[in-house]
């Protein structure tokens, strides 16, 4: 950036970088080093295909790339020279696909053995899975309502963010009840309502649906590549302008979703994808694209609650970005880090021309909840390094 670069210029650059598709002739990740920020700062923009990492594994990778102290680790010297594997031929890919299909009976046999060894627990799990799949089917039969956010989108993106204190959000939930996620969703619902009404759209009776990714990654899978998430379709009562009532609605709705096992059902359907032929999965994905199950993605990823460093320089703020799907004009991602919880908001360039104002709506919505809870929002001091 031309020095001294502002945060607004960094946001504009991030929007342009995230608008560019990854080069499929190369590994599906990129890291951009951005110099010239004001106060002697620099930034890193990281793009990784979602097939490689999910939110949790992304945080795991971040903990590897960064140091936990200002003193960088001393390099241990070159190890074995890394040589990339050659690209597989068509024959090799066919053979691997056939091998994968051949192992499916083994997986089925393993499940049968599990039933014989522990029938009660397996039957209980099967019952939970059946209830969960039913909950997912019900969600599919009740599609998300049409909204100004769900229009055809273009290739260009806008990106902005909002900083918040994790301590403040915990104080709000301690005062008003619920969880951190409940407060986050109530904040997003309030911001969406404000944004729509300012644009002149009526919100009476409008309840949008948010897709909430739920990590199903086991502890033994931490650090492994791949995407291990299920999903819940959570209602966002954008019609409700009273902050406490809005939080109460979100809390009760999420409680019902969790007890209904919707995330379990989504995991079962995800696991079944490994047993279905690619032609069936292709048609299923096309059907899901036509059926609007949700209006936007809202994802909250827990990050390290201690500072991280890169070559002795402290990381001040990480801001997450969730990719937009077809017909999804806006997405909200959150990442907690070192006492903060940062909102990253991405929008279609043309559809969300006022994305900066939506970030202000988020701040106002959170302030409403804080006032109702008797919590004074603190201002985070930026550490100069």
Q: Key features?
A:
alpha+beta; 385 residues; Chloramphenicol Acetyltransferase; two-stranded antiparallel ribbon
In short:
With 385 residues, the protein is an alpha+beta fold. Helix content is 43%, strand content 18%.
Would you mind describing this structure in some detail?
A hairpin with a 3-residue loop joins strand 1 and strand 2 (41-48). Helix 6 (166-176) packs across helix 7, helix 6 packs across helix 11 (355-373) and helix 7 packs across helix 11 (355-373). The longest helix has 23 residues, at 119-141. The protein is of the alpha+beta class and 385 residues long. It contains eleven helices and ten strands. The chain has helices at 7-19, 55-65, 90-102, 104-117, 119-141, 166-176, 180-198, 243-260, 262-272, 278-290, 355-373, and strands at residues 29-37, 41-48, 157-165, 208-215, 229-236, 296-301, 309-310, 313-314, 330-337, 340-348. The chain has two domains: 7-49, no CATH class; 109-373, Chloramphenicol Acetyltransferase, CATH 3.30.559.30. The two termini are 19 Å apart. Residues 125-138, 262-275 and 380-385 have low confidence and may be disordered. It has a six-stranded mixed β-sheet, sandwiched between helices. A two-stranded antiparallel ribbon has the order 1-2. It has a two-stranded antiparallel sheet with strand order 7-8.
